[in-house]
Design a protein that fits this description.
With 420 residues, the chain is of the alpha+beta class. The chain has 14 helices and 15 strands. The termini are far apart. InterPro entries: Homeodomain-like_sf, Integrase_cat-core, RNaseH-like_sf, RNaseH_sf, Transposase-like_Mu_C.
């Protein structure tokens, strides 16, 4: 099992213990409900877990953090447990013929027909393979019941989303902007928000790091199913900080009513001011927005807060806020990740740039974690080497290590040349 799969399993386990960690459920009731269900587990497929096992995960997380939830390495590591290429098409064809058959029954059917050997192909392998091709039999569910809610403690739940912002005319070109914001469910305070030029994850990383440093760490983060909010980086970061990441159901924007209402407030009370005096750059846009946010929005009485101001409600519970003790730590947990095979000259390519690493990694497949400032090689979740940008001009003047020739060898070489 590679490190990527171990992290996915750890994320699944964190999802089960998060409600216990946040003390938002009755422990006995919750454990009884969770242990009675079958769970779709990365790598393992459908499994049930005893309450004792879930409590052990909670203990491991409190002792070692996110790494404590990772499974150990397999004793049969290196042995093939996959479907062979010639089996895959046949299994898919059979599954389409028996689409209504539960996966557990279908797996037994494959064994009975001699299509697979249980010692070579596990149930989890078949489950993952069929899930990848969208051939798991899904149960139909009723439309979810929605009820209005509001938490009574600050930083219990944050909502986040991205909305299209005003367009700027810079140097004769029209530039699009996007407003990325977080809002506290209890106080309606905005921990941080900023206009960014793209819809990529870099904007979310920047805004979330600033929100955490300014206003502390929430227990839960609620968002939609957008690509950046489903990224592995966000899931790893939330799990590392003890934040339970929650997603709305597909096509259910009503579930994020507070952040959507905040965006509407921005359009009616801030964007209208831009029409009279447009911003000339994204930097100016953000400076003006932040002044409006602190002076107007945070200090304006809010109807849903019984006439109190968002900043007033937040500060009334400031002693309950869990702060970021080491802001530099956020740089590490928000690193982007990639896999690369190091060439025999100890180099690899990343985002159209060539990097070099120590020669010990030549020919190996490695995990890369990086941001705009540095690139590192990771093993078992820890940085083991820094990758440097290849500078061809500098390398031309680097002194290479060559084996020294003895005086006797030089004489023999000279004698051999003379004989010829």
């Amino acid at each position: 099992m590679d490190e990527g799969m171990r992290e996915k399993i750890a994320l699944f386990r964190f999802g089960l213990i998060a409600p216990l960690l946040n003390e938002q459920v009755d422990r006995t009731t919750y454990l009884a409900e969770v242990s009675a269900k079958k769970h779709d587990v990365p790598c393992y497929g459908e499994k049930r877990y005893a309450a004792k096992t879930i409590l052990e995960w909670l203990l491991f997380y409190r002792r070692k953090g996110f790494d404590g939830l990772k499974p150990g390495t397999r004793s049969d590591r290196g042995q093939s447990r996959k479907l062979m290429p010639d089996q895959q098409d046949h299994v898919l064809a059979l599954r389409k013929q028996h689409a209504e058959m539960p996966i557990t029954v279908f797996y037994d059917y494959l064994i009975t027909k001699g299509e697979i050997l249980p010692g070579r192909v596990s149930y989890s392998t078949v489950h993952r393979f069929l899930n990848l091709h969208g051939l798991l039999h899904g149960e139909t569910t009723k439309a979810p019941e929605r009820k209005r809610f509001a938490h009574d403690k600050v930083n219990m739940l944050w909502q986040t989303d991205m909305s299209e912002g005003p367009r700027l005319r810079i140097g004769g070109k029209v530039i699009r902007t996007y407003l990325l914001a977080f809002i506290d469910d209890c106080s309606r305070l905005v921990p941080f928000a900023q206009f960014v030029p793209t819809e990529k994850f870099d904007g979310l990383r920047l805004v979330m790091k600033e929100a955490l440093i300014r206003r502390g760490i929430p227990k839960m983060l609620y968002t939609d199913n957008g690509k950046i909010f489903r990224s592995d980086i966000l899931q790893f970061a939330c799990a590392s900080l003890g934040i339970q990441l929650l997603h709305t159901r597909s096509f259910g924007p009503q579930s994020k009513g507070k952040i959507e209402r905040y965006f509407l407030t921005c359009k009616t009370r801030f964007y209208t001011m831009l029409e009279a005096e447009p911003a000339s750059s994204i930097e100016e846009l953000n400076e003006r927005f932040w002044r409006w946010l602190e002076a107007d929005y945070h200090r304006k009485p809010h109807a849903s807060l019984e006439g109190k101001m968002p900043i007033e409600v937040y500060l009334s519970q400031i002693e309950q806020v869990r702060t970021v003790s080491e802001p530099a730590m956020l740089d590490t947990i928000f690193l982007r990740r990639a896999k690369r095979t190091v060439k025999h000259d100890a180099t690899f390519s990343l985002e159209n740039r060539l990097y070099e690493v120590p020669e010990t990694f030549a020919g190996q497949k490695v995990e890369i974690r990086y941001d705009e400032r540095s690139v590192h090689v990771y093993e078992e979740g820890k940085a083991v080497a820094e990758a440097k940008v290849v500078r061809f001009a500098d390398n031309a003047h680097v002194k290479r290590d060559r084996p020294a020739l003895s005086f006797k060898a030089l004489q023999e070489s000279a004698g051999g040349a003379a004989d010829v």
